[in-house]
Specification:
Number of strands: 2
Strand order of the largest sheet: 1-2
Strand content: under 5%
Radius of gyration: 35 Å
Mean pLDDT: 93
Largest sheet: 2 strands, antiparallel
Distance between the termini: 70 Å
Structural class: mainly alpha
Helix content: over 70%
Amino acid sequence: MPTAPAPQNTDELHQALQENDRRPYGRTRTVTAEELVDAAEQFDDPTTLVHALLELQEAYTYGSEPRKSPVVFVRLLNLLDEQPDVFDERLRHMLFWRFKWVAGALRALPEVPLASLRQWLTEMRDRYEKAGLGLQPYYGQAYQLAAHVGEGTTLAYELWAGRARTRLSDCEACEICERALHHLAAGDDERALRIWEPVLEGKESCQEEPARSVSYALLPLLRTGRTDRARELHLSGYRGCRRNPSMAQEVGRHLEFCALTGNEARGLELLSENRSLFDEVDSPLDLLGFLTGVQVLLQRVERLGRGELPAAGYAGRTWTVAGLRAEIHARADDLAARFDARNGTTAHTDRRRARLDRAPLLTALELTLRVRHLDDVAPAAPAAPAVGAVPESLPELIVRARDLDEQGHPDAQACWARLRTLAAASDYRHPDDPAVGPLARLRADLLSDEANRADEKEETDAASLHEDAAALYEDAGLPGHAALERACAQLPAADATGQGSASAEEKAAALTDAHAAVVRLHEETPGLAPYLEARMLRLRATALGLRLQTTGDKAHIAPVLAEVDLLHAFATRHDLPGQISGSLLLRASTHALSGDLPAAVAEIDALLDRLKTHGPAWHLPRTLGLRGRLQLALRDAQTAHTDLTEGLRLAADWPADAVDTAQLHADLAEACMRLGRPDEALRHLTRSAELELRRGSRTEAFCTYSNAARLSLDLGRVEDCIALLDSLLAEPEVAAGELDDRLVAQLRLTRARALHAGEDLKAATVEFVALAAESAGWDDDPASHVMIAAETALLLGESGDFARAREVADQALAAHAKAPSYDQLSSCLREIARVQAERQGPDGLADALGFLADAGRIADEARAAGHRPDGRSLDTALAYEHGRVNAYAGEYETALAALEKALALLGDLGADDDRVGEWAESIRLAGVVEGLYLQRPAPALTRLDAAIVRLTAGGHTEEAEALASLAARLRDEE
């Protein structure tokens, strides 16, 4: 089925060819190119057919279909021979350039005899000589064939590299890569890297470079100790080749790099992202390189004992690492043997074996902000935290779990996890032991533990789990335990009641009712064991503490403290260290909630002294964490950092969930930001997010990762930001739509901004346009649509698509009417106007002024609404932009008048006025317009000299120097 209606004339066909040229390489572009060739054959216009055939050959070449590219080229050669006048100078240049493409395509096909490859090179030489063209490109292809075969490379290299370049030589970047690879093959890493430097630095580039060179340079960089550079280039280079069939070999080398640097989990993640390459790569040579890189990765994972892990492979079945490695081994060995049989050497088998035999170069190189391990790849649930005292005997294990649970000891988690596994087995036999009790009690214990973990994660089923556990305890003849479970159900039930649009009063009422229900259960259940009664008392205090947190009502403080005093007295009387500590922690939290931070710190300090003497030790990390948060509230970031660091050190002795290590990392990130240590903050944010993810708090984890991504972008770590977000957006729940769509949109927005910052304008534009279309449907959040549409319009303007920029800007203006965003929208409109005037000059002036007119209306609205701008005055910024836009369009008198208006609006500034920079810039541009463009240097110098004196007197030397430089130029030209 055709992808689009067939063109009805040659004009429509040329337009369709241009549109197809803007598409990414792949099946859609290739199929469209095939259809356009069919359409071109219907017209009696050989020039149009030539253009269509050239587009089709390009699609085949960069779509990794080498078998088809030579066939198209032969048609073009026949047209050249039959109708040479059809080919103008540009078309002849393109045709002769593509001799090299065909040579590369034939090398990639093992079924093409070596004699045919050499015959093609002879044809190329003959054609070049007949056309009077230099032969350096021919010798370049002769060298590449020698390097491919593995014979005669030294002489072939000298014959090529010693010749002067011609117009038909490969681009500088590609030739640099070939020269570097020659020395790399000879074992000279340092020389290869020196040759590569202009490409790796981005000074030379093309369609394939620097991505191709980067993939080869990664291992030499590691071998020469340049690990940071290798890491940086892996992130940027992989993004340049991922999911691209024509760069499958490059993807394979990035997978190999992961395998040899202790990043096997990242390698499997990237393999999954490139799964389509197994079926899309039609080039045997590219496929051999890709499969060998994949095998290096899978072989490494298997040698680590993880051959059972899932792996992304050929479509149609599921694969394990071991199974896919065996399949690839056979296929790649066959491909290498076919090339060697064609070439009459063992070069490809030898090179493949050398890659497979490489030992890891580093045990662990941290490649991304999101550090992954092979355990994160496993489909099974994460293992329970290991402790040294889990008994082997089942009765002892049950008794031990209950004893630890009564104490609130973190090691109880591991015991319950082990028991849950044992009890779920089909052959489980419950011990007939009075000390253990009936199976119903064990099942109640396990369900209670599950409910408690659901409580910690604020899951919606926590209340029902507690109720189910209560029923099981009743069946087991334990009414006290049942009462406690019903009491535990009250808080999550109250939380559910207060969700959504509930007011603070409604939430407080729900918590008041929950407290009353717990009190009633407490009073109606006599004979509670002390540890159960203490938990009941703690629930009472917690309910009222949550009520105080919800309302902030000072009348709610005393009831909380009264309940805390009851708990503390009871726990002291019965010597329950964990509950004594808990009561003191609640008291400190209550003081903090009431706004008495010094009293809260005093309570915490007393508690820390007690914990160090009497324990329990596992309460120390949380207590230090609370003290750190209090110090942050008191604006003492250094003390907070000290407390939180110590808390994190002590937390290492306990399971992360039990001491909330994730929160410690998050709070440390905040302390580091306040101390001006953003890189350290970034490490803590990512660590916090990963811990949240491992304990199943996925929304919180993604929110924290989103913060980390934005921080990394603010720090200029663009590739780190993109790699982190690519990893997150590839998570299964994102693809399945299970994560909150607004959170996913925030991740995509940050990624789009990072792509823009990384100067990948095309990819950034695609993402922004998609987000703008999606956010247009957010009727409940027009402010976000204003923000996204405004940024999208600006990016379209920077891309030169001013018509679409106008359309999207109008969307932003419509959303702005519902949710005003004066500063950002005005700024974006002014910037689009500037870009259009700068790019199009007088031709773009009318449209540019249209954008400025919209910005003017926004400034009027802001003034009428009493809006105070965050930065520059909207009116002065608009006047300045009118000056700049008119100057770009050659309307110099209008530009000067606008700049003088901006200066008048700024007025007479004081020495410390933060608008000095804006004033000086307006003076500078006015001087340029008046002195250079209008050729009136005298008044321009008068203005500049006065400003220089004023700026110098105010100590603004940088601004004064810029104006002095312009004044000197004007005097030189007088």
